[in-house]
Structure prediction request, 513 residues.
Amino acid sequence: TVIIKEKKVITVPQSEIRGTITDTVGRPLPGVVIEIKGAAVGVTSDGEGKYAIKVPAGKEVLIFKSIGFETKEIPIAGRRTVDVILRESVSQLDEMVVIGYGSAVRRDLTGSVGSVNIEDMMKAPVRSFEEALAGRTAGVQVTSVDGQPGSAINIVVRGANSITGTNAPLFVIDGFPIENPDNNTINPNDIESIEVLKDASATAIYGARGSNGLIIITTKSGKEGTAVVSYDGSYGNQRVIQRIKVFDSYEFVRYQFERLGPIVADTLYINEARPTIDSYRDVVPVIWQDRMFEDSPQQSHSLSINGGTKGTKYAFSGNYLDQQGIMVSSGFNRYQGRLRLTQRVNDKFMMSGNVNYSATKQFGSSPIPEKGSFLSEALMYSVWGYRPVNGNPGIDVGEEDMDLSIDIVNDQRFNPLKNYENMLRDRLGNSLTANGYGEYKLNDFTIRVSGGITRDMTRANSFDGSNTRAGSPITPQGLATGVSGTVSFSEVNNYLNENTITYNKKYGKYHQL
Prediction:
């Protein structure tokens, strides 16, 4: 005989703790999070700073958290009432941030300034700091033009401000304002801080140039002490995670009969070797995505040396980056070096100089169409839309130039692999940035004279062979231009001189001008 009895519910004894949370002057604090250490239980304080929480047996510590206040852990110690006083967290409020031509304590700011956590940013190895900005600062949108290695990154601060003009923010790198810089020339490992100035009060000192916001970048400087040698390296693989599902051979031929009609499609795809549509069920299709995409490595190596004395500080770094594209025959590489020297002559006068040089190479065609061209000229249009099989078993579809059954005037589909491998698109860049300043303190005034130069030299090589859409004798574009190539060279020099006088005086304990 089996006797089944109802299982008794075992309850864990709990005690209720109540209390009031205030700041250091006795004002109640609403919205404070109260948690039990070691248990997934939490409540928040009400509008009068009061709270009540049930604590399971064996749990003896309460945790109090609130934004702008120090986190506090308090033992219960057998009490039923636990009142708490929270102090303001001064570490965040006293943090120095760079604004305009100087710096300020965060508690004194009235404008909107966002800071990027550099340690978190460097946890994900990237080609340029712009890629790491995505999702790290509120109100900053980061998008890539076409996703190719070395391609431009678009940054918009607090939305688009212009319909026809540029929405790019002004970059200030070590005090040197630069509009639309090539940020591939900067090694992310060299960056010490990034501040994003968003509103008019924060950007006003730069006038109209700062109307789209400011991104202020400060690179690392030497530290007092013996020389410190650091190495940072990373290696990884990139791959296409999600691919577009396309027709197999049978599905494609069946669609051609629906699109072209049985009379035309029959002449193109039905023959002795493949007498019916069902014959294509066993024909292996060409998956163009498999031929165009490949797993590609990315590696970066950085070496830095910094140190100095009380009077002289130095920082030197070098970087090599190689990023192969997920599309065949595409990639980006960079050689970069930077030197920064700071000399304090005496208590009142100091000087600093900074030199950055980089040599870059970007190769591979863009997968998106150029402005004013047909949408069907885009490389990805052919990768997804070019036929996976032809009607002639003796000719590999991968070896033909184009599908002559399409409207070659309005449809620019071309064998994507042949087109891509027989064109040349190279962009070689050399960039030099050199700037420096002298600073003299006179009582409550700081006089600063700074100057610099940025020199960007770019060479672009382009060539379209006879097996490309632009150079093929069987396309309208190829008939018009034939096999062709271009070489273009540009050199842009920017010079800057800025002279500022800053007045800074503190009156009493709280007032500063």
About this structure: Residues 170 and 179 are 5 Å apart (CA to CA). The two ends are 92 Å apart (CA to CA).
